[in-house]
Structures are given as C-alpha cells and as structure tokens.
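Treating backbone geometry as a discrete language has practical consequences that deserve illustration. Part of our work consisted of pairing the sequence of a single chain with a tokenised description of its backbone. We regard such an encoding as a compact summary of how the chain folds. The amino acid sequence and the backbone structure tokens for this protein are reproduced below.
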Amino acid sequence: MRRIGRFLAAAAHAGAETIVTFNLKHFPAESLAPWEIVAQSPDDFLVDPLFAAPHVVSSKIQEQAERHGGVARLLGVHRKTVPTFLDRGYS
C-alpha cells in the first residue's frame, strides 16, 4: 500500500484529476475522493476523447503506428490492453 500512496501523493501534488491504471482495485473511490481524483482503466480513459475528438485520436494512433511497426502491429498490442476503445473506434 505504501507504493500506491506514492502514486496518489504524486497525482495529488500534480493536480491530476485521473489516475489511469490496470489495477483499479488498488485505487478505491473512497481513498481518492478527498483529493477529487478518480481512477480509470486505460480502456475507459481512452473512450471519452475518442468521441469528443475522433480526428485527434486517429491522428495520434497513426503517429504511434509510424514509430512502433505499423498500424496492424499497434492495433494488435492495443487489442490486448484496450479492447473496448478499439471496438468503439475501429469496428
């Protein structure tokens, strides 16, 4: 728990509104509430910008793909980690 406290302290110090993590169980809402911070999975975190600015998200994915071996490879990696984001944006 001490390590998690460091992440929370850093987020609060930086004025973050969201902690993005695969380990949501380590950041219960009641622990984050005093700092007005929420925890979201990467999948959920990416869905909001997808609908707010799809052209920006598409552009960023293209940029990432160019640096990381092409669109097919990048989407293959993302399919494992953010499947809802891809299903909503690329189905």
In short: The first strand starts at residue 18 and ends at 20. The CA atoms of residues 46 and 88 lie 10 Å apart. The chain has two domains: 2-40, 43-90. Residues 43-90 form one domain.
